[in-house]
């Protein structure tokens, strides 16, 4: 056979390797930084960039009105994620940077610091070695749309923007009890967060300029600008209610910060749907495949196709199917490997159901470099499965399918001629449920990162959850680079 006419096969291992090591995301970050920094020597820039210990660090902004708890949450986040904490006060108070001295002189004269000075201060700090290596958290900045647009023009944009929100009445009440440790800069409150250490308690002071009138003016100023600022970061912003315990706020913030924003880097979905018979795996696979133009693979259908096409593997499988026996895993893997190596599956991605059913089969997928990057368990009670399947009927005249509860026949004449598929008989369904649950625990142990979904609800509700986990990158663990 002419080699040029053979079907194109792309080893699936290429895509698995690239995704495992973040190659596509790395390309995206390198190109993005080259466009922003515009180096005179792009090749040397790429070499230096790749030599960094970690090029994908946290870049965070924490915004919010006065007394929302920005300083407290920012310090806790910096401890957990080991990023550099940057505040407007620290930028202006820098004794080394001459621009900071200029900013202090402007403040002493009673004027506002110009946008270009703020940008110079922020850029100088963020381009320093510790911020490049560890990442950074910018607290309370930008405060205006002009500042936000100016830092974006310099290539400075947060990957996550946290906005702490609380009613103005709560914030005004909070500020009355606010106390500051002049030695460490830590913020405390007479009611909500009083220090247990008597030494710290003895040195707490009331911050200067804290009055109800000044607080109201600050809130008016904040509300005037905040909507415009947030329009600059629409896809990376998360609003969090700050009128709750500190531990709850911190947990919500960390969860958001460890989520990965959607990226322009190529992503090829390789999805496996697991669950008992009647859980809706084929329905969900069809919805996913139709919306995202990926290949819908049913293990049972592939085996039937191989037999119908009279391929060598199909001929080997045929005796097992005719006798109602389980097809050996090695033959099933040959069928799957052949289909998953085709160009459409490798380039567009795939969603598979009906395989694997045991831990050994899951290990075979991994050994063949066909392991999925998303695994979903569709959980549903046995009673719901029986209700879904046992009450199904088919009209042999029209081919229409009915269900005695969800889609009953309209006339007694139609009802009288309905037939039940042998696979939907009660004993057959019970047998398949027993077979699934016999291996469910061991396959769940193998796919530890799999997501579990309550499949005993509307199919489109289930699909929305699956879809959200497909299009968004998987969240990182706390502190994971």
TrEMBL record:
Single GO MF descriptor: ATP binding
Keywords: Kinase, Nucleotide-binding, Transferase
CDD domains xref list: ADK, DD_AK8
Signal peptide: none
Domain of life: Eukaryota
InterPro entries membership: Adenylat/UMP-CMP_kin (IPR000850), ADK_active_lid_dom_sf (IPR036193), P-loop_NTPase (IPR027417)
A Pfam family recorded for this sequence: ADK
HAMAP family, per database record: Adenylate_kinase_Adk
Family to which the UniProt record says this protein belongs: Belongs to the adenylate kinase family.
PANTHER family attached to this UniProt entry: NUCLEOTIDE KINASE
UniProt name for this protein: Adenylate kinase 8-like
